[in-house]
Amino acid sequence: MVKSSGDAVDPRVARTRRDVIRASATSLLEDGWGATTHAEVARRAGYSKATVYAHWPTSVDLVRDAISLICEDATHPATGGDLVEDLHAALGALAGTLSEGRYDRLMAGVIERAGHDEGARELRDRLYETATTGVRGVLAAHLAPDDVEPCLAMLVGAVLVRTTYEGGTADAAFLTDLIARALPT
Fold first, then answer.
1. How many CA atoms lie within 13 A of 30 on its CB side?
2. What is the C-alpha separation between 178 and 40, in angstroms, rounded?
3. Domains of the chain with bracketed CATH
4. What residues contact 129, with CB distance under 8 A and at least 6 apart?
5. Is-contact 141 79, C-beta < 8 A?
6. Buried b (16+ CB within 10 A) or exposed e, 30-41
7. Which helix (H) or strand (E) holds 179?
8. 8-44, pLDDT tens digit by residue?
9. Beta carbons of 128 and 103 less than 8 angstroms apart
10. Which residues bind DNA (predicted)?
């Protein structure tokens, strides 16, 4: 990386990195991993392929930084202290994100590669952690530690199946029923 005096990053390099990472993230969310090539990212960002390759020698390097940006930009609803209401908000936000159809393409590429690529496994884990942070936080605030992970798996799994596999909506009635079934009594 080109540095100026005092070890500060050259603003041109910082701008290039920012533009390319944003273009990579957009490509991942719109078209998936397979379409997020150096050539496509260079086209979207307005830089040469050589510039992209100079900073990100492999597609995993490019995707890793894009996923970092996606995870950093993730937001989760504020909690109010009521378990059921907070779960409704957190699960509703997750369902909304999944229903957009952008994350299924992203996750499909990551999951496909995770079986044989340690870097992709790390990305899969980071995406899961980011996607479930809101729900996990609500559960951790209200449940015994041993109950958090099983409830998280049931709740998130049901929302994922409803929105992604079934193509349905996780509306308020669905979430109310799901929460009632999943919470330990």
1. 11
2. 41
3. 5-70 (1.10.357.10), 75-182 (1.10.357)
4. none
5. yes
6. ebbbeebbbebb
7. helix 172-182
8. 788 998 999 999 999 999 999 999 888 999 999 999 9
9. no
10. 37-56
One-letter identity of residue 44:
R
Residue 53 has which token pair?
């390759």
pLDDT in tens, 115-140: 998 989 999 999 999 999 999 999 99
CA distance 26 to 65: 12
Q: Which burial class, exposed, middle or buried, applies to 75 when counting CB atoms under 10 A from its CB (0-12, 13-18, 19+)? A: exposed
- Dihedral of alpha carbons 26, 32, 38, 43, sign: negative
The Cα-based distances of 65 to 2, 10, 69, 102, 178 in angstroms read 19, 19, 6, 17, 35
The residue written with tokens 């378990």 in the block is: 83
Query: For position 48, what pLDDT does the model report?
Result: 96
Structure tokens at 72: 């950093």
